[in-house]
Amino acid sequence: MMEPQTVRRFRSNPIEVLIFFVVGVVFLNSLYNLIYDQPGFHFAALSPMSANPISERRSPASLAPTNLTTLEVPCDPNSDQNTSSNKVRLIGKICTALTEHTVRTLFKSEITNTSNQFAATVFAGPEKFSTDYIPLSPGKNSIHMVFSYQDGTVSSRDVLIIKD
Q1: 3-state secondary structure at position 50
Q2: Cys-Cys with 85: which of 51, 69, 96, 137 at CB 3.0–4.6 Å?
């Protein structure tokens, strides 16, 4: 005959006990620091930002708001623009959105300053587009715009922006 096995009612997994113990110690340490206003761990101080050579070239955007301009791009292919700004935001109509009473669905849009190879972020709707601020190089800046549609049609145009 088989002997009845005794089943232990309260089994404890050693891993669970260890995790419970660690969480309990962290909780008690936090509670102690909260009650007695102890500062806790101290990390080494970071170096000041001016010691970083990359940050020396940057400045807050609020210092020079006159260096930003918004230019409206017309559908006319010969529409050169002049500006003295360091950066421009382009807005305008997508000139090829309508074709014989059919509205095309825009699939992809790319706007690039070919003078400095800056690819702008484009915010496009069904008929209009806008970009983020595009940095300009001194002199002539050729802005290349490409609009691709779901039906495979691709429309491109170039705008020349001359920075004084």
Answers
A1: helix
A2: 69
pTM exceeds 0.70, yes or no: no
- 8 A C-beta contact, residue 148 and residue 107: yes
Domain residue ranges of the chain, discontinuous segments joined by +? 66-163
Nearest to 150 by CA among 119, 109, 91: 109
Contact 50, 56 (CB under 8 A): yes
The string of pLDDT tens digits covering residues 64-117 is 555 888 999 888 777 788 898 999 999 998 876 555 556 678 889 999 999 999
Q: How far apart are CA 124 and CA 21, in angstroms?
A: 55
- For residues 40 and 12, what is the distance between their CA atoms, to the nearest angstrom? 33
Token pair for residue 52?
């970083």
Q: Is CATH 2.60.40.10 the right assignment for the domain spanning 66-163?
A: yes
